[in-house]
Amino acid sequence: MATPAPSALVELLKPITWFAPMWAFACGVVSSGQPTHGQWPVIMAGVVLAGPLVCATSQAVNDWYDRHVDAINEPNRPIPSGRMPGRWGLYVAAAWTGLSLLVAAALGPWILGAAIFGLVLAWLYSAPPMRLKSNGWWGNSAVAICYEGLPWFTGAAIMAATVPDHRVLIVAALYSIGAHGIMTLNDFKSVEGDTLTGIRSLPVQLGIPGAARFACLVMAVPQAAVIAFLFAWSRGWHAAIVAMLLLGQIALMRRLLAAPCEKAAWYNGTGTTLYVLGMLVAAFALRPLVGVP
Known about the structure:
transmembrane, transmembrane helix
């Protein structure tokens, strides 16, 4: 039986996608308000769980069940190109699922629960009969939760060894909602294949201009809510910094809206960078608040 080359395996697991959940996990660690002294082995294990394990699992699952769509949109990917032969894509997805659960179990019950939730969503997102990605409303919500909210929760929970402070949960949830818009931007590159294969992404459902406007709105409104909460919690300087980062995104959105398909990748490298910087600022704002009535 043919076996894939290591380079094909790495490409299947898509290391470039690991950044978002690892960053959100780090924001959770910061926002927990707990000292990191002596916790670095646990923190690093959590980072590995968020990125190279759970996120990588989702990428393998998605590529396996998307192999027919990818044959149209991106035929050079490992599975449609034949560099990941036979059912190896499915085997890798199953193996990485098991490995993720083993690591999560070693980190405690809250982390195991979060990992199970994320892995279930990863399979439901791509695999029939649910295949959440077949509808952009459900699919993008699942990815946004797994990329931002869930790893933020995990990072805070792994430090506190319990459910994080309610303010941490509020901010994590808001940035998770905003990530729905970021996920919509990723759909612009595959409109043709999605249309041909019946995937009802938001660009397919709303049209490209409508989906672009909706993505911008969904990214901006939760950040405005974060700013309001930070002011209410007397974190004025942090709120002002997040507000400036949001204004920068809004300025960049004007170029995005002028040519969504051509500028979506550009915005992910510019506007989304400002978005994730705001996440870290908000995490530092929460740090001294945790435990304060």
